[in-house]
Design goal:
Blueprint: E1 2-9, E2 12-13, E3 16-17, E4 27-38, E5 41-51, E6 53-58, E7 66-71, E8 74-84, E9 89-96, E10 104-106, E11 109-110, E12 115-122
Antiparallel strand pairs: 1-4, 2-3, 4-5, 5-8, 6-7, 8-9, 9-12, 10-11
């Protein structure tokens, strides 16, 4: 079993701040738990939170004016499972946004709700 957690604080203000993505999130938390119950199977549960998100738009050509659009927080729970059948063939499934939350990735562009992707890995 592996566990990893991180937290980041990045103060933002108009033309000052750290670019942590287009949403300029001030607070970012990420936690991952990976479990390997049997050798060929690995299951990873990941939680991502991005808080105090804003989009800053410079509107003042002659003065220092900014338009700030506040975006809602991201609460994203993901699950990834993989099974390595042999050295050549493996299977995986990835489920995203298990909490079925809606947020804006960018101004006016909403995130996809629950999504599931599965597939086969071929190594040659």
């Amino acid at each position: 079993m592996d566990f990893n957690a991180e937290f980041q604080y990045s103060p933002q203000e108009n033309d000052k701040g750290y670019i942590t993505g287009l949403d300029r999130a001030e607070l970012i938390a990420n936690a991952q738990l990976k479990i390997t119950p049997i050798k060929p199977l690995a299951v990873t549960l990941e939680y991502v939170w991005r808080g105090n998100r804003s989009y800053y738009n410079y509107i003042g050509a002659t003065s220092n004016e900014w338009n700030t659009t506040t975006l809602n927080d991201i609460n994203n729970l993901n699950l990834h499972a993989s099974y390595q059948y042999n050295k050549t063939i493996g299977f995986f499934i990835h489920a995203s946004n298990l909490l079925n939350k809606q947020w804006d990735e960018f101004v006016g562009i909403g995130a996809q709700k629950i999504s599931v992707l599965g597939g086969v890995n071929l190594v040659f």
